[in-house]
Amino acid sequence: MTGTPLEELREKVRELTDRARRPVAITGAGVSAESGVPTFRGEDGLWKRFRPEELATPEAFARDPALVWEWYGWRRERIAPARPNPAHRWLAWYERRKPEFLLITQNVDGLHRMAGSRRLVEIHGNLWVVRCTRCGFETEDRRAPLPGLPRCPRCQGLLRPGVVWFGEPIPAEAMARAVEAVQRCDLLLVIGTSAVVYPVAGLPDLAPQATLVEVNPAPTPLTPRAHVSVRAPAGEFFGPLLPEAPG
Ligand code: BJW
Ligand code: ZN
Asked: What distance in angstroms lies between residue 187's CA and the mean position of ligand 2's atoms?
């Protein structure tokens, strides 16, 4: 449906989302781009400048934890002022209308929660959570700046970011919730992800029964399978679908 005027696509998506009974959304870094959070890949992607295999792996952390923490410290600082955009707000609003809706996000920035989403699986973890590499102690979502090499308040072990790195499995409970919802969904919205990182990139394959809607300014490996393909920034697309603010 490339080339269809945006307003027509909005009507189509309004109709599909109204009608859906068990909708699921999968989001990626692109949903936060209009909030000022850098994406990973692409022109302004984080990894144009930093090599992921040097920073987002358990091996990198074992080799040089200070370097990895420096990168995460920089990202925490950079992302802290970000606020939800209309795409995050639309998803939070939609959740309140659809009791069976589930939002699966690959994002670690916390913006979906800030927008009000609660039926949410943060499948790659959360940038604001830190975990002890020795005793497993985990903090809540805490935004205070951290020292260069943060230590566990319980056992003095080294703390690490509460995110999922390459080569690490997705926590079993998060994965099970995501798989179960995708397998039984009737509408799958895939928003702002390059759809190349597994296992999330494989989730749409589990939903041959669902209508697939993709919202992304650029094509992805998923695009040929999408029933509706919206080539637009997510915030710009979803903004007009939000109900008018009261008063
Ligand atoms: C807009 C927009 C706007 C712009 N509006 N859109 C070979 C084949 C298959 C798999 C593998 C393989 N080799 C290795 C693997 C496995 C690996 C993997 O998939 N690698 C691929 C890259 C090949 N996966 C893993 O390792 C995963 N674990 C695993 O497989 O475990 C198995 C296991 C089992 C048992 C024991 C042990 C292991 C874990 C993956 C973890 C990914 N982690 C990261 C970092 C998180 C922490 C952090 O942030 O620091 O997660 S990587 C990074 O990529 C991050 C993201 O969540 C993830 C996905 O990126 P995303 O969100 O799609 O962002 P971008 O930048 O790629 O795309 C943005 C998109 O937005 C673009 O399309 C733009 O066009 C669009 N956009 N503006 C809408 N305004
Ligand atoms: Zn500890």
From this structure: 42
